């Protein structure tokens, strides 16, 4: 086959292999408990669904402006002002097909050949591949539980070279649930300004945050930082709208214009119907978000207590998002008569086949030794899944 060299540089995520196997088992009627999902298990709020139906009936079924409808961009501008303290004109906002498209287009707009892009691991699976597709180099800084999976200012400073162009920040983090305080972000801001870096901040989990942790958008730190930051956000996690594919970016005019150009030659506008739904999500009642957040918090408390009670496991208590990222290195080198565990991938496959629990190996996020367990599933599934994991791990010697 003559697939381009560029595409051959991109890996297929190990996530897909475990997920494909889990789907196959489910199709055979096996009862798999799925802790591998990356999306809310709540249905999209009814008012949002109704707005989409109305949009269809009102024939809002044609192309919109490439960067999104005027109404939706105005509503996003108000949201950014009210919730994040950020002033953006509607023209400094672009609506995209999911936050992922905005991330991709932001990277394409900022990264030239051989530019270096810094982000920490464990990372969201798509960041390295987006950088590779832009012919850039990922400079990945490993983090561990010792620093609560947070990058330190010292680590950041050390990683910067004359080729560094962009820093990607994402918090609360997928897959660890780590988060930064305002003070920690301010320390990064100083380094960003001194070294003339651009920042892409992926705020997709901003509303899923626990205890007394507070979300602060990086761009809101000061005007200079705002002028070198692209804020990316979306509706997938906050409004349980993953399938509607609506996200957005706000940032400096020149970068948003560049992203608009790329979008105009690739996908054009995001779905007109989904945009109408997203407008209702922002303008309608917001209590859904708090209901969902509280439910996730209860689940986090439950699964965290259960998982850390298992022999050999250590785990950071997530401050946000809906994932637990336990350290399972204790089980490496252990075996049953059929399985031997050397890596997180083996462990994920073992748990899938032995006790029918689907998880994602830490290696998918650039962090060997861990598994990602999503608690975006019912309490009933969590209870059953945890029991199965305990049973599976107890059989390893
Ligand atoms: C950190 C992070 N960023 C971006 C996305 C993509 O979101 P969207 O569905 O809006 O494309 C995800 C989805 O899992 C995510 O975890």
Account of the protein in words:
The protein contains 14 helices and twelve strands. By secondary structure, it is α/β, with parallel strands linked by helices. It has two domains: 5-43 and 288-390, Aspartate Aminotransferase, domain 1 (Alpha-Beta Complex), CATH 3.90.1150; 62-283, Aspartate Aminotransferase, domain 2 (3-Layer(aba) Sandwich). A seven-stranded mixed beta sheet has the order 2-8-7-6-5-3-4, sandwiched between helices. Strand 6, helix 9 and strand 7 form a beta-alpha-beta unit. The chain is globular, with a radius of gyration of 21 Å. The protein starts with a helix and ends with a helix. The mean pLDDT is 96. The structure holds pyridoxal-5'-phosphate. Pyridoxal-5'-phosphate binds at residues 38, 98-100, 124, 170, 174, 202, 204, 234, 236, 242, 247.
Kindly summarize this structure in a few lines.
Helices cover 41% and strands 13% of the residues. The chain is built from 14 helices and twelve strands.
């Amino acid at each position: 086959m003559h697939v381009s060299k560029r595409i051959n540089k991109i890996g297929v995520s190990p996530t897909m292999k475990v997920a494909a196997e889990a789907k196959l088992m489910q199709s055979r009627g096996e009862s798999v408990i799925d802790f591998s999902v990356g999306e809310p298990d709540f249905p999209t709020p009814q008012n949002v669904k109704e707005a989409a139906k109305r949009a269809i009936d009102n024939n809002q079924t044609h192309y919109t402006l490439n960067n999104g409808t005027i109404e939706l961009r105005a509503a996003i501008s108000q949201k950014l002002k009210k919730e994040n303290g950020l002033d953006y004109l509607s023209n400094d906002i672009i609506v995209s097909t999911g936050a992922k498209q905005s991330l991709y287009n932001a990277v394409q707009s900022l990264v030239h050949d051989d530019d270096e892009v810094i982000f920490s691991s464990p990372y969201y699976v798509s960041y390295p591949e987006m950088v590779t597709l832009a012919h850039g180099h990922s400079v990945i800084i490993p983090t561990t539980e010792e620093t609560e999976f947070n990058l330190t200012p010292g680590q950041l400073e050390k990683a910067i070279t004359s080729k560094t162009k962009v820093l990607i920040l994402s918090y609360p983090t997928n897959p660890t649930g780590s988060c930064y305080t305002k003070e920690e972000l301010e320390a990064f801001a100083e380094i960003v300004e001194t070294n003339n870096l651009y920042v892409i901040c992926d705020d997709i989990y901003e509303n899923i945050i626990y205890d007394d942790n507070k979300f602060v958008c990086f761009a809101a730190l000061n005007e200079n930082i705002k002028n070198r930051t692209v804020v990316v956000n979306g509706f997938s996690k906050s409004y349980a709208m993953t399938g509607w594919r609506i996200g957005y970016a706000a940032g400096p005019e020149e970068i948003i214009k560049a992203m608009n150009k790329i979008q105009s030659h690739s996908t054009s506008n995001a779905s007109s119907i989904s945009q109408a739904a997203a407008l209702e999500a922002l303008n309608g009642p917001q209590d859904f978000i708090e209901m969902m957040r509280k439910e996730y918090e209860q689940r986090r408390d439950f699964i965290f207590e259960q998982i850390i009670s298992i022999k050999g496991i250590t785990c950071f208590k997530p401050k946000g998002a809906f994932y637990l990222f336990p350290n399972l290195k204790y089980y490496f080198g252990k075996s049953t008569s059929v399985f031997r565990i050397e890596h997180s991938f083996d462990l994920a496959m073992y748990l899938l086949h032995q006790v029918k629990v689907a998880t994602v190996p830490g290696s998918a996020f650039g962090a060997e030794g861990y598994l990602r367990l999503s608690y975006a599933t019912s309490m009933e599934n969590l209870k059953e899944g945890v029991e199965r994991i305990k049973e599976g791990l107890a059989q390893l010697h």
